[in-house]
Amino acid sequence: MDPTGVYRIKNPEPKEDGVWVTDGTTEQEITEDAYLSNGYKPKLQSLPWGEPKPEGKTG
Fold it and tell me: Fewest beta carbons within 10 Å, which of 10, 14, 33, 41?
């Protein structure tokens, strides 16, 4: 399964905002630039804003 965006993450300045992505096995935060550069789906602007880390996750 290709990595898919779940939600956007608003980070404090100067850190770039991120996107929480999953490939069905692993999950992690990547920068918005990396998300856009890799052409992940869905479109960045369609993702909702969420929390920095899902409850129970440490990665």
Answer: 14
pLDDT in tens, 1-51: 899 999 999 999 999 999 999 999 999 999 999 999 999 999 999 999 997
Domain that holds residue 39: 5-44
List of residues 6+ apart from 54 with CB closer than 8 A: 20, 27
Of 15, 30, 21, residue with least CA distance to 3:
21
Q: Give me the number of domains the chain comprises.
A: 1
Single pTM value for the model: 0.83
Q: Is 50 within the bounds of a domain?
A: no
